[in-house]
Amino acid sequence: MDESGLLPHQTLTIFETACHKANLSLLPTYLPGILVTFSAYHLIYLSIGPRLSTLFFPKVYPNLRGRKKLDWDENVVSLTQAIVICGFASQVVLFDVDRQRMNWQERVWGYTEPAAVVLTVANGYFYWHLIMMVRHRDVFGWPMVAHAVAVTFLMTNGYRPAFMAYSPPSFLYEYSTIFLDIQSTLRSLEMEGTAIQIANGIALFASFFLLRVVYATYLQAWFYMDLWSAWMASEDDIPAGSARIPAWLLASHALAAVTLQLLNYMWFYKISRAVHRKFFAGKVAGH
């Protein structure tokens, strides 16, 4: 029995009823995976990450305080999840033939088991990340809160299922996160200007542009076309056993996707400005 006086099976029944009313039919099935992943990342944040950081960086990590320590600990979790989710998502994008062969109706209403598993692994982190961004919004800023809310909204609605086929390819954006977190770590280690920092910076710039600007824009173009098809769908277009996706949800999906992509453009602009100042501004001034 939990603190509310309910037995575990009663709590589960209430949750399943709530998911049914919210049309999140797949969420109860994959909830255990979400909880396990969420707990694993929080354990990394609270214990595993700090212990390994102290072991490998004994002259730096124990001296971090305040925001610098928070940034470091969050980056450890972020880097871990980026490596994990990129590995899983790449496998699905490359080898999940059923997903590759989907028509527009299947991309809107369908799903495959590999895609659902990848989404579940990712959502464990996204829920954790949302809590962290809201809790420390004064540190990370409101754009990061908006990003976390938009991602969580899109990925949770994948369990209707709705547009789940777009989840695995969108997780490939996280390859740029790997270099971003390494860049932040090198900055904490005061390694700015070193060869490894410059090489990582180039990789960050290239991966961010190719994945979050070029590839993301291409992927969103397909997403908007499928979203429009779902909006205009006749009853004959809707697969048997599926319900029409409500207009408010389609509009919310469009708003969340636009928000995410505008943030990508904004962050790429900031990265470009930083690269320009570091490598070109001084030379121009010298002339």
TrEMBL record:
<feature type="transmembrane region" description="Helical">
    <location>
        <begin position="201"/>
        <end position="225"/>
    </location>
</feature>
<feature type="domain" description="TLC">
    <location>
        <begin position="67"/>
        <end position="280"/>
    </location>
</feature>
<dbReference type="GO" id="GO:0016020">
    <property type="term" value="C:membrane"/>
</dbReference>
<protein>
    <recommendedName>
        <fullName>TLC domain-containing protein</fullName>
    </recommendedName>
</protein>
<dbReference type="Pfam" id="PF03798">
    <property type="entry name" value="TRAM_LAG1_CLN8"/>
</dbReference>
<dbReference type="InterPro" id="IPR006634">
    <property type="entry name" value="TLC-dom"/>
</dbReference>
<keyword id="KW-0812">Transmembrane</keyword>
<feature type="transmembrane region" description="Helical">
    <location>
        <begin position="108"/>
        <end position="128"/>
    </location>
</feature>
<feature type="transmembrane region" description="Helical">
    <location>
        <begin position="76"/>
        <end position="96"/>
    </location>
</feature>
<dbReference type="GO" id="GO:0005783">
    <property type="term" value="C:endoplasmic reticulum"/>
</dbReference>
<feature type="transmembrane region" description="Helical">
    <location>
        <begin position="30"/>
        <end position="48"/>
    </location>
</feature>
<keyword id="KW-0472">Membrane</keyword>
<feature type="transmembrane region" description="Helical">
    <location>
        <begin position="140"/>
        <end position="159"/>
    </location>
</feature>
<dbReference type="GO" id="GO:0055088">
    <property type="term" value="P:lipid homeostasis"/>
</dbReference>
<keyword id="KW-1133">Transmembrane helix</keyword>
<dbReference type="InterPro" id="IPR050846">
    <property type="entry name" value="TLCD"/>
</dbReference>
<feature type="transmembrane region" description="Helical">
    <location>
        <begin position="245"/>
        <end position="268"/>
    </location>
</feature>
